[in-house]
C-alpha cells in the first residue's frame, strides 16, 4: 500500500484533519530479504491519534498495522499512547480510557495478530487492576494474546500528571523477529536503558514515542543505535495536541534504524507506516565489539545517585573560602599529578583568573585547535583553556622519547599566553613524574616501561595532571591501557575532566566524569566517526522554525554526550570528524556551541554556573538527577554476558 484515497468525513474527523483537507497514509518500505543471514522485517506505525477516541484509534491502528504486515513486517510498533493520544492533564481525565493489559483493546488487536501473523507493540494507558494505579505502558501482543508489558521508567514532563513510573527495567521479549527490548519515548533520552537492553541480549529496540522539540528521525535515536550496535524501530505520533491552551507539535519521523544508526526507512509527517529488513547477524557482530570494549571497573560513579541538589552535595566538601573538591572529596589531579606542578586546588601559580561572568556565574574561555601537526599558533584573546588534537605535538607514531620536550614546549607556550592546555601523546606507562620521562624504567634491569596513551593538562607551572587512556582506538593499539579510576581536577573556573576522543564513543566515561562534578571535558582526538551526517530538513511545523531546516552536521556524537550529562565538551580532532565546543543542552536551539569549520582555533566562552540556560544546565545537571540508578546503576557495572 503506497497511499489511500481521500478519506470520508468520518475518517477525517477520526484523524483530526481539518474539514476539506485530504489525508494520505504513506507507506515507506524496503523489500524484504528473506535469504539474508539473520534477516527480519519489522515495521512502525505513525499515527495521528484522536484524543480520547479509542474506537477511532483502534481502527487506524488496525489499518496501518495490517498494511505493514502485508509488506512483510513480523513485528509492528505503534506510538506511545497510541490508543488515546499522549497529553492528559490529570489522572481523572485519562482513567476512563485506561485498560488492563488483557483488556478489550488488546483482545481486539489479538485477532488482528492472528489474522495477519504479525505481532504488535501497542502504546496505551494501563490500569493496574489490583492497585488502581495508571501507567504509561506498551504491550506486546501476539496471536494468543498479550505476551508481556513494560511501564515507562523515565518520565517526561507531562507523564507525572497522571502516570506512576515503572518499577522494573525493560524486559527482553522473544518474538518471530528476534529478541526485542521495549523502551518508551524519554527512556531513550538516557543512555542507560538502551545499554541495559544491549547487555541483556536484545536484538533490537522497539520505541513507542511521542517525540517533541527535535526533528525525526531523532539524532538521539540514531546515536543510541550506533553506540550500542542495536537497531531501533521508532513509532512516533504525528500532528499536534493541546493541553491547557498550549500546543505540542509531535516530530513524526517514525523509522527503522540499523545497528549503525543509519536510516533503513523513515516517514516524515502525517499518518502512515514504514517497514524495513534488519540484518540481526551483522548487528550482533557490531554489538559484541562495542560491548566487549567497555571497561565496567571504571564506571563506579554511574551507580551513584545524584538526586540531592549538587550545591548541597558540594557544600559538604567545600573548604572555608575555597572551591569544592571534585567528586565529593577527591584529590586534585587526574590519573597522576606531579607534586611540583599541581599548585593548590584553585590553580594558584597558573596566572589564570576566573573567566568573565556569562550571565551571573563563572565561565571559561575554551578554544580547540585544528591544523597541521606541530603548528601552535597564538590562541584567541580570552582563552583560558586550549585543547590540541591528539599527537599534535609529536605526530601519530608512538615516540615517548619526544614527550618531555613536547610538554616543556607546551608549558612555555602556556606561560606566554597565560592559559592552560590539554593534549594527548605517547608516554612510558611507568613514568609517574608527569613529565613523560623516556628514561623511566620498570624494574632493576632498567628496561623501559610499557608505552601508554596519555591525555595531559599543562599549565604555566608545568604538567598538572595526566590520565592514561583506558578505551583505546585503532590509532593507539600499540598502547597499554590505563587503569586509573575517573577523577576530575579543580581549576579556577570549575572542574575539568580529561578524555581521549575514542572515549566519547561509549557513553560511560563522560557520564562518570559528569557525575563526579566535571563542568568541562577536554578531549584531544584523532577519530573518524560516521557522524555527524546531513539532515535534509522536515515538513513538520516544529517550533522554533530552525528545527525544520536542513542541517549539515546532524547527530554529532560530542553534542549528544555533552547534552546527555550537561557538560561542555571541547573536542580537538585530527581526524575527519569536525571538532568544536559543544554545550550542555543539545536540544534547545539555537545551540550554544561552536563547530570547527577549518584550520585554526575555534573558541567559545562557556558558562559553568548561572541562570543563562547553559550555565544552569551545567551546574544543576538535571538529567543526571533524574537517572534511575535504582534500576540501571549497578547494571552498568556488569560485563558483557
Task: Tell me the layout of helices and strands.
Blueprint: H1 9-14, E1 26-29, E2 39-46, H2 54-70, E3 75-77, H3 91-94, H4 104-116, E4 119-127, E5 134-142, E6 145-151, E7 173-175, E8 178-182, H5 191-199, E9 204-209, H6 219-228, E10 232-236, E11 240-243, E12 246-249, E13 255-257, E14 263-266, E15 272-279, H7 280-292, H8 310-315, H9 326-329, E16 355-358, E17 361-370, E18 385-390, H10 403-417, E19 420-428, E20 451-459, E21 462-468, E22 489-491, E23 494-498, H11 508-515, E24 520-525, E25 533-535, E26 551-554, H12 557-565, E27 568-573, E28 580-582, E29 593-595, E30 600-607, H13 614-620, H14 622-625, H15 629-632
Parallel strand pairs: 1-15, 2-3, 3-4, 8-9, 9-10, 17-18, 18-19, 23-24, 24-27
Antiparallel strand pairs: 2-15, 4-5, 5-6, 7-8, 10-13, 11-12, 13-14, 16-17, 17-30, 19-20, 20-21, 22-23, 25-26, 27-28, 28-29
Helix pairs in contact: 2-4, 11-12
Amino acid at each position: 500500500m503506497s497511499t489511500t484515497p481521500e478519506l470520508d468525513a468520518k475518517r477525517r474527523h477520526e484523524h483530526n484533519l481539518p474539514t476539506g483537507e485530504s489525508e494520505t497514509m504513506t507507506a515507506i518500505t524496503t523489500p524484504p530479504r528473506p535469504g539474508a543471514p539473520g534477516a527480519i522485517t519489522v515495521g512502525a506505525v505513525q499515527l495521528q491519534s484522536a484524543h480520547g477516541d479509542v474506537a477511532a484509534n483502534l481502527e487506524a491502528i488496525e489499518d496501518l498495522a495490517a498494511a505493514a504486515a502485508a509488506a512483510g513486517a513480523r513485528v509492528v510498533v505503534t506510538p506511545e499512547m497510541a490508543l488515546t493520544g499522549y497529553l492528559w492533564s490529570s489522572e481523572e481525565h485519562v482513567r476512563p480510557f485506561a485498560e488492563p493489559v488483557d483488556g478489550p483493546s488488546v483482545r481486539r488487536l489479538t485477532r488482528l495478530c492472528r489474522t495477519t501473523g504479525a505481532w504488535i507493540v501497542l502504546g496505551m494507558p494501563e490500569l493496574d487492576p489490583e492497585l488502581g494505579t495508571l501507567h504509561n505502558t506498551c504491550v506486546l501482543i501476539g496471536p494468543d494474546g498479550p505476551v508481556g508489558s513494560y511501564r515507562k521508567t523515565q518520565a517526561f514532563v507531562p507523564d507525572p500528571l497522571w502516570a506512576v513510573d515503572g518499577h522494573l527495567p525493560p524486559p527482553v521479549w522473544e518474538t518471530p523477529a528476534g529478541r526485542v527490548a521495549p523502551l518508551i519515548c524519554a527512556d531513550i533520552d538516557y543512555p542507560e536503558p538502551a545499554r541495559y537492553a544491549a547487555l541483556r541480549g536484545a536484538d533490537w529496540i522497539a520505541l513507542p514515542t511521542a517525540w517533541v522539540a527535535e526533528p525525526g528521525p531523532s539524532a538521539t535515536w540514531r546515536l543510541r543505535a550506533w553506540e550500542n550496535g542495536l537497531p531501533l524501530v521508532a513509532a512516533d505520533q504525528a500532528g499536534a495536541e493541546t493541553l491547557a491552551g498550549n500546543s505540542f507539535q509531535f516530530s513524526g519521523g517514525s523509522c527503522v534504524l540499523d545497528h549503525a544508526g543509519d536510516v533503513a526507512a523513515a516517514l516524515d509527517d502525517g499518518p502512515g507506516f514504514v517497514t524495513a529488513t534488519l540484518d540481526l547477524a551483522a548487528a550482533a557482530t557490531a554489538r559484541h565489539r562495542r560491548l566487549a570494549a567497555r571497561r565496567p571497573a571504571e564506571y563506579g560513579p554511574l551507580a551513584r545517585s545524584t538526586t540531592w541538589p549538587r550545591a548541597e552535595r558540594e557544600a559538604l566538601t567545600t573548604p572555608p573560602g575555597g572551591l569544592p573538591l571534585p567528586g565529593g572529596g577527591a584529590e586534585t589531579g587526574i590519573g597522576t599529578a606531579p607534586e611540583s606542578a599541581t599548585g593548590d586546588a584553585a590553580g594558584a601559580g597558573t596566572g589564570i583568573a576566573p573567566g568573565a561572568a556569562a550571565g551571573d556565574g563563572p565561565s571559561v574561555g575554551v578554544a580547540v585547535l585544528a591544523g597541521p601537526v606541530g603548528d601552535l599558533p597564538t590562541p584567541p584573546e580570552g582563552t583560558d583553556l586550549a585543547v590540541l588534537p591528539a599527537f599534535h605535538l609529536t605526530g601519530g607514531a608512538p615516540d615517548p622519547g619526544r614527550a618531555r620536550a613536547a610538554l616543556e614546549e607546551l608549558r612555555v607556550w602556556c606561560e606566554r599566553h597565560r592559559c592552560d592546555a590539554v593534549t594527548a601523546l605517547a608516554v612510558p606507562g611507568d613514568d609517574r613524574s608527569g613529565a613523560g620521562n623516556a628514561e623511566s624504567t620498570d624494574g632493576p634491569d632498567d628496561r623501559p616501561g610499557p608505552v601508554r596513551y596519555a591525555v595531559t593538562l599543562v599549565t604555566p607551572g608545568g604538567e598538572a595532571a595526566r590520565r592514561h587512556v583506558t578505551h583505546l582506538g585503532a590509532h593507539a593499539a600499540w598502547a597499554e591501557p590505563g587503569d586509573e579510576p575517573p577523577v576530575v581536577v579543580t581549576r579556577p573556573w570549575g572542574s575539568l575532566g580529561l578524555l581521549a576522543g575514542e572515549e566519547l564513543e561509549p557513553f560511560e566515561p563522560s557520564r562518570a566524569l559528569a557525575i563526579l562534578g566535571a563542568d568541562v571535558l577536554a578531549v584531544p582526538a584523532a577519530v573518524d566517526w560516521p557522524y555527524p551526517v546531513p539532515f535534509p530538513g522536515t515538513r513538520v511545523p516544529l517550533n522554533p522554525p530552525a528545527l525544520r531546516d536542513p542541517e549539515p552536521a546532524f547527530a554529532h556524537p560530542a553534542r549528544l554526550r555533552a547534552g546527555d550529562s550537561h557538560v561542555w565538551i571541547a573536542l580537538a580532532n585530527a581526524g575527519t570528524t569536525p571538532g568544536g565546543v559543544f554545550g550542555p543542552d543539545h536540544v534547545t536551539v539555537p545551540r550554544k556551541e561552536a563547530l570547527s569549520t577549518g584550520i585554526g582555533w575555534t573558541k567559545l566562552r562557556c558558562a559553568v554556573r548561572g541562570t543563562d540556560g547553559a550555565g544552569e544546565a551545567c551546574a544543576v545537571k538535571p538529567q543526571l538527577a533524574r537517572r534511575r540508578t535504582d534500576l540501571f546503576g549497578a547494571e552498568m557495572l556488569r560485563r558483557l554476558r
